[in-house]
Amino acid sequence: MKALPRTLLLVLLAVLIVAPCLSDNPFYQRIAALTALAAISASAWNLIGGYGGQVSFGHSVYFGTGAYAALLAFDKLGLPPIAGAPLGMLASLVLSMLIGLPSFRLRGHYFSMATIAIAALAEGLVTNWNFAGGAIGLMGPASPRTVADLLFRSALPYYVLFVFVLAVLLALTYLMQRGRMGFYLRALGSGERAAESLGVPIRRYKLYALLLSGAFTSLAGSLYAVMIGFIDPDSGFGILVSVNMVVMSALGGAGTLFGPMLGALILVPLAETTNVVLGGGGTGAAYVAYGIIIMLLARFSPGGLAQWWAPLTGKGPRRAA
Amino acid sequence: MILLQLCVDGLLLGAVYALFSSGLTLIWGMMNVVNFAHGDFVMVAMYVAFFAFTLLKIGPILFVPLTAAALFGLGVLVYYALVRHVMRGPMLAQIISTFGLALFLRYTALWAFSANFVSLPDSLVGGVYDLHGLRLSASHLLAGATALVLTLGLHLLLTRTDLGSRMLAVSEDRVAAALVGIRPDPMQALAWGIGAASTGVAGALIALFFYISPEVGNAFTLLAFVTVCLGGFGSVPGALLAGLAIGVIESLSAYWLGPATKDVAVFGLFVVLLWVRPQGLLGRA
Amino acid sequence: MTITRRSVLSIPALAVLPAAALPTAAAAAETIRIGYIEPLTGNAAAAGQSIKQGIALALDIINTAHPDLAPLPLAAAAGLPKLGGAKVDVVWADNQGSPAVGQSDAVRLITQDHVVALCGAYQSSVTLTASAAAERYGIPFVTGESVAANLTGRGYKYFFRTTPFGPDFAKLYLDFLADVAKTGKATGKIAIVHENTDYGTSVADSIVQTAAARGIKIAQRISYSANGTDVSPQVLELKNSSPDVVIFISYTSDAILYMKTFHTLGYRPPIVIGDDSGFSDPSFVKAVGDIAQGVLNRSAFVPGKPDGLSYKVNALFKQRTGRDLDDTTARSMQGFLVLCDAIDRAGSTKPDAIRAALAATDLPADKLIIGYKGVKFDASGQNTLAYSLIIQLQGDDYVPVWPTGQATARLTLPFKGWA
Prior knowledge:
The complex is a heterotrimer of chains A (321), B (285) and C (419). Chain A is mostly helical. In chain A, 73% of the residues lie in helices and 1% in strands. Chain A contains 14 helices and two strands. The C terminus of chain A is likely disordered. Helices cover 74% and strands 3% of the residues of chain B. Chain B contains eleven helices and two strands; from the N terminus they run ααααββααααααα. In chain B, a hairpin with a 2-residue loop joins strand 1 and strand 2. Chain C is built from 15 helices and 14 strands. In chain C, helix 14 crosses helix 15. Chain C is an alpha/beta fold and 419 residues long. In chain C, the strands form three sheets. Chain C has a seven-stranded mixed beta sheet. In chain C, strands 2-1-3-4-5 form a five-stranded parallel beta sheet, with helices on both faces. Chains in contact: A-B, A-C, B-C. At the A-B interface, helix 5, helix 11 and helix 13 of A face helix 3, helix 4, helix 9 and helix 11 of B.
């Protein structure tokens, strides 16, 4: 009964994934790559923000750390930028601990505000940190020295790489969702006090979720820096970086496996298209349209778009707190 | 002398933050809805004041109430058209809906008023007082005094009036309030209207000494969040205290540590304070 | 050049065509498209919008006959003569102030709209990423307005910059101050106040380095964040140390706040220099002109004498927009005109031919709309003849006051501020 729509969805997904590889249009390929990249960071955010119900507005800290790690590896050590990715993930694990342990005592909006402030703090510190380029930022290699620099004219190699990372992340999320951790996080997401009274070790599991989330957000940041070849405090640590992750997850369906990806799949092409069609006019019409669409979606589908496909696949959506 | 001037400037600036945040704290505290479009409400208010002055040729005595009235309307409209529907949804839906609203307001302003910076004439209110070398601008003083009055007024409204009790009752428990005969929707619409109206007053007064552009809300939004949070959600006197504290910290740290590090000082202290005292300065635990 | 059906029909291309140009554009395959990336929304939108107006005028000058502007290349006849009178068309893209968006714009303009060259992108950080994409595709990129030092010097083959940059400005200010010192005024104690992103930091660095090379020590350097709400601590710091000269490197919002705060705190430094950007924004003069009297600024654009090119171009601009041409817009227009001239000289729309023509550019001062001593690129793509003047806000207008040979008004010091 439920199998048919589910198969259809999977086929649709497969088509979507393969389509950019068959297209010969470089711009569409680039949109596809940017979409996949946004899907990685949104899905990573979803681990703690969606499943764990801890709405973080400070994930740009991890994103920026990853992005800077990549370009610092190039700038200071002469390594290919991608070699900085593991370092960034390591640094983000440490940061997750430092930020998570004290912040998890805060609830609801207080937690969100603390994360916003931490991100603003990080942006301020990096802006004043001359070793890392200060306010000017860091450049990647101007031209590829070896293939390891991952500097391609076509966006297709990036797309393939990003989809691979996304697949790994979603597989991990799937395993987590089915295991004990998923159970605990769901309990947490539906009510922190209740979960605590049932004996769920909430602090520990929140921290696990944040570690995984921070590491993958950092990886997304490294991949961004590798592809764009430039990072400055605003594009790494700016509040919009975090807001985008939140908006995509919320729109697609926070706390669902594919929700954040769905959000990215809608928002990135939407932003690009509105910019193409309306941006050149220079009246801000692109943003007006974007704002209206977001409001309409929030108004008519507050649980995220994933709630529309839930009846099809027979799985209920999980709401964020 | 410099120290005194710095502190006075900091306090006046802090009063502006408090003024700016009073509407936000009301909406946030009463309804547990974070209004990401708050800075853009202020932007709208500043433009209303600007056009009231340039087109209708009316001065601050008239355009401040006019702006408050206009923003009251905007607040009520936003409540009925948008917030009412997303309020009972997940927190995330509320956040993205006001985020969408922020984009909509900001870029409609860009389309309608262009990206150019405009400003009200500096001499509109008073000028500058010189007290033995201590310089005080009349427009800042006016904004500071209004912040005190407005804060006190909102506080009294919430704690001393029947209307305030009704609004608080709805914010505590919609269903229970409805059971005792308080219709929740008009109460909450009123809260949005009052919150927006005080934002309107803030915007009109800030326009007296600040530039106006579609992006101007950006400069204040984050600080308004920090102010509200530091003061404790929903605590109007808390927001005043927090605003004053932030103003002085900014002023002193900018002078001693350099202006580029003042954000670091403010946000750093805020984070540490939250970790130590999670409910804010005057918030209830 | 081949133009696919899709790109001719694409909406952004049609949206920017003036109605009158439609029939030619649809019929003629030889219309030459140039991509223009600017901040049309976001913090710097005022500048981007102003540049857009300027380029509309530049297009009109190129595409229709303007015999009265004769010495200006491409003005006299309609279109590009060596390409059979081909018309030039600009495809606009909004960079939203984001390096990533600017890069996407570049890729889109190159691959979708098949532009033959790119211009832009105002913010140096965006110019950096957008030109990196252009370099990968082997498409020439000309910036007429971005000034960060790190843009040239990347070893790029397809990147050219017509505008003066940090070291040029540093030299201008120090030469000027040395000249003022000869009149007996103190100029030894210099304070630099700069916004802390790439623009402010790199120009401030240039001034400090150039000064050090001349044995001058900068007394004070204050960096601040441009989107702040209050600048009184900085002004108090200045007031306390009372330097002879204050050089501001600021965007518009902060430039306005500094002038308002000077007024509030009653502080008038003897010499105030504002480095272009914010101080040249037309809305700066409108907003705080009455309390910023006597502020000095740099500009490469001065309308000058009625028979000069700058004057005539300014008159045309004023006719369209009701205001005078500002420095940033004029510099961007000049970059665009240099590019179009190179395309014409190349006689081809092949990127490599255009690149070669750009590299061979050698325009004398009388063929420019702006006050450079000429346009000639070095190996890094930097214009070696770029040049600026010192101007001063007197009344409602900036007037050239230094060097004396090109001045139309007397330099009045000290800084007056308000009445």
